[in-house]
From TrEMBL:
Pfam families: Dimerisation, Methyltransf_2
Swiss-Prot/TrEMBL keywords: Methyltransferase, S-adenosyl-L-methionine, Transferase
Presence of keyword Mitochondrion: no
Protein name as catalogued: Methyltransferase
InterPro entries, per database record: COMT-like (IPR016461), COMT_C (IPR001077), COMT_dimerisation (IPR012967), SAM-dependent_MTases_sf (IPR029063), WH-like_DNA-bd_sf (IPR036388), WH_DNA-bd_sf (IPR036390)
PROSITE patterns: SAM_OMT_II
Domain of life: Bacteria
Keyword match Lyase: no
Domain O-methyltransferase C-terminal residue range list: 117-307
Ranges where the O-methyltransferase dimerisation domain occurs: 4-77
One MF annotation (Gene Ontology) recorded for this entry: methyltransferase activity
GO biological process: methylation
């Protein structure tokens, strides 16, 4: 109970450090507390408690009065690393998503203006700034699974993949960095192209990773040995989920695989609180959207013709479901 009571303050402390630029300031070298305070504009009176709270949270290391980033903070919280930076956009978005949760729970209606998932995406892709923010958010949500998938899935059996709803291209980009024999297509709405191409160029895999514009409901999915849905199915109702899996089945060759990764709810609906909370967020953000258990996804894959279906944990609250055509 105590951890739940203090969880909000832990998040706010992290957000404050990101807003102040603490991790970016420490990116080049460790700094003594007075120098770090001057660098980020931190008043000396609360500084020791604030910086040591970041140490206790596992975000900074301290030797005497000299502070340094932990490896995880250096990788994901340094704004000078645009390829891996999780950024304040995603953190702030997560912190603000629950603002109208009580209203959603009372009415059962999403808090925005979207009538369905398509309206939601139209809003996210309405301007260059909103597209880039949404793409960064999706990278932050997927980066842990991208690294885990590079190790957990038998990529040596396949040569091509399509990432449906690819955003910045983090998932296929990191997979191609780990597996030089792979080539890939990122499939998304046309406004995603610019951010995608910049990101995969920075990763050094642009020669093997192509952006292909399209609408995954209106257009056929590109063909490949593996088709990936990462944090896509939870935006839709069951009917739409099945339609997307049917389209994946049609686009795959015999022996090809569909790979779904999400914050899957545990089958007993007792332990993966993040999966259940993300499902609440879907109810709040996208009319009809919801997260689901591994057992539910297995059944959807079975109904759409897939075989040899299995569920495997990836990273943190994330898991994958795999089926073979």
């Amino acid at each position: 109970m105590t951890d739940l009571l203090w969880a909000h303050w832990k998040t706010r402390t992290l957000l404050a450090a990101v807003d102040l630029g603490v991790f970016t300031a420490l990116a080049k070298e460790p700094l003594p507390a007075p120098a770090l305070c001057r660098r980020v504009g931190l008043h000396p009176r609360p500084a020791a408690d604030f910086l040591d709270a970041l140490v206790a949270l596992g975000l900074l290391r301290r030797s005497g009065d000299v502070y340094a980033n932990t490896p995880e903070a250096a990788e994901y919280l340094d704004a000078g690393k645009p390829v891996s930076y999780l950024g304040d956009s995603f953190l702030a978005r997560c912190a603000g998503m629950a603002d109208d949760l009580v209203g959603v729970l009372r009415t059962g209606e999403a808090k925005g203006d979207a009538r369905d998932g398509r309206d939601f995406y139209a809003g996210q892709y309405a301007s260059s700034d909103s597209v880039r923010a949404f793409q960064r958010d999706m990278t932050a949500l997927s980066i842990g699974s991208a690294h885990a998938l590079a190790e957990r899935f038998p990529w040596d059996r396949y040569r091509t993949l399509v990432d449906v709803g690819c955003a910045q291209g983090a998932l296929p980009g990191w997979l191609l960095r780990h597996h030089p024999h792979l080539t890939a297509v990122g499939f998304d709405l046309p406004p995603a192209r610019e951010g995608f191409e910049e990101y995969v160029e920075a990763l050094g895999v642009a020669d093997r990773l192509e952006f292909r514009p399209g609408d995954f409901f209106s257009d056929p999915l590109p063909s490949a040995d593996v088709i990936v849905f990462g944090h896509i199915l939870h935006n839709w109702g069951e009917e739409e989920k099945l339609r997307l899996l049917e389209k994946a089945y049609a686009a795959l060759p015999p022996g090809g695989a569909v790979l779904v990764y999400e914050t899957l709810i545990d089958d007993d609906r007792r332990s993966n609180a993040v999966g259940l909370i993300l499902s609440l967020i879907m109810h709040a953000e996208v009319p009809g959207g919801f997260d689901y258990t591994g057992a539910q996804c297995r059944e959807w894959l079975r109904r759409t013709g897939f075989r040899d279906i299995y569920v495997e944990h990836l990273d943190g609250p994330e898991s994958m479901v795999v089926g073979v055509k």
